[in-house]
Amino acid sequence: MTSQRILDFLAAERPDGPCLVVDLDVVRRNFQHLAEAFPATGIYYAVKANPAPEILELLASLNSSFDTASVAEIEMALAAGASPDRISYGNTIKKERDVARAHALGVRLFAVDCVDEVEKIARQAPGARVFCRVLTDGEGAEWPLSRKFGCHTELAVKVLEHAHGLGLDACGLSFHVGSQQCDLMAWDRAVGDARKVFLALGEKNINLSMLNLGGGFPTRYLRDVPATLAYAEAIQSALNRHFGNRLPATIIEPGRGMVGDAGVIKTEVVLISRKSEDDPMRWVYLDIGKFGGLAETMDESIRYPIRTPCDGSETAPCIIAGPTCDSADVLYEKTPYPLPLSLRIGDELLIEATGAYTSTYASVGFNGFAPLPTYIVGGGDDAAAAA
């Protein structure tokens, strides 16, 4: 899974300490696969997945749009070359002054999920386009995103009706079926719910025109996942089933599916120990853990592939933990992880498919450990380092 370009970089540069290395050519390939599979759908890269400037610049050059969660991410997308009309402020939780700043920067597309958020936008971004996020159950996702964001469909009708009454362009709906979603039918359920809102508002002479299908497109970790084209076919089938020949404009917000398999974390075994002399279970401590960028191992939701210099030799289950003085800094214990018995202190491991939701999850200095550095290879510059 790790590209040869990343392996060559690590062998030549020998960066000290844990680090993330991202191959831009893999990002380019993933964007092209998505564009081919969804030719009539706008692609809005979820900046939060990995906001490295080189990634944003590449995607901007490919005419990608961007889903942003903050003013800082909006400014990153603009600096990378995106025009304001290619930026969505997709966070439903925004300070009023941030709405004003986004509007001043030219952003005109905002997410909402309640009446109070609509009123902020009406005051600070008059005439803007708004879409309402509706709840999904997140079933089938390895990293569910239900509960915190979105509202029930009945409330979505009232929210968009209120937006329309305040002079905003109530343009559509959004949903997110959960990150690392492997159930192709998850979109069918969500599209069906969205259709109900379209119909209810149509009866009030408010005609929605856009459906944001969210993210959820996976990367391959330890298990195979459906191909990009399979997602596109399932989603198109759902749209046809529920909307017939009156299809709305659609956008998607890939994050993990865009950059996940483009990155690899290099880490080192710091210690291997047991809790008693006759304890059959090894504890393998790495120089990176939950607070160094592997936050998605919380509840062991994401199980990353790990390559070792001893691959092919006999393995046994072990508990993998990070280096900090926090008892929560354990990656895999509920389901121990098989690693070679010949593994030794000082061995360097590669944690694969870590291009998304790692570098920006890293703490800025917990226990004195430095933030996770990122190196970018490919795209004509094989030794560029991003802070």
Q: Secondary-structure blueprint of this entry?
A:
Elements: H1 4-13, E1 19-23, H2 24-37, E2 41-46, H3 53-61, E3 65-68, H4 71-79, E4 87-89, H5 96-104, E5 109-112, H6 115-124, E6 129-133, E7 141-143, H7 153-165, E8 169-174, E9 179-181, H8 186-202, E10 210-212, H9 228-243, E11 249-252, H10 256-259, E12 263-273, E13 282-286, E14 306-307, E15 315-321, E16 330-340, E17 348-352, E18 374-377, E19 384-386
Parallel strand pairs: 1-18, 2-3, 2-11, 3-4, 5-6, 6-8, 8-10, 10-11, 13-15
Antiparallel strand pairs: 1-12, 7-9, 12-13, 12-17, 14-17, 15-16, 18-19
Helix pairs in contact: 2-3, 2-9, 6-7, 7-8, 8-9
CATH topology-level fold name of the largest domain: TIM Barrel
Shape: elongated
The CATH architecture of the largest domain can be named as Alpha-Beta Barrel
N-to-C series of helices and strands = HEHEHEHEHEHEEHEEHEHEHEEEEEEEE
Q: What is the CATH top level name of the largest domain?
A: Alpha Beta
The structure class reads alpha/beta
* CATH homologous superfamily heading of the largest domain: Alanine racemase
* Strand coverage percent: 15-25%
Q: What is the number of independent domains? A: 2
Provide mean pLDDT, rounded: 93
Helices, by number, come to 10
| End-to-end CA span | 25 Å
The major beta sheet can be summarized as: 9 strands, mixed
Which segments are poorly predicted (pLDDT under 50) over 5 or more consecutive residues?
381-387
* Helix-residue proportion: 25-40%
Radius of gyration from CA coordinates: 22 Å
Number-wise, the strands total: 19
Describe this protein's structure.
It is a single chain. By secondary structure, this protein is α/β, with parallel strands linked by helices. It folds into 2 domains: 90-254, TIM Barrel (Alpha-Beta Barrel); 261-386, Lyase, Ornithine Decarboxylase, Chain A, domain 1. The chain has helices at residues 4-13, 24-37, 53-61, 71-79, 96-104, 115-124, 153-165, 186-202, 228-243, 256-259, and strands at 19-23, 41-46, 65-68, 87-89, 109-112, 129-133, 141-143, 169-174, 179-181, 210-212, 249-252, 263-273, 282-286, 306-307, 315-321, 330-340, 348-352, 374-377, 384-386. Mean pLDDT is 93; it is low at 381-387.
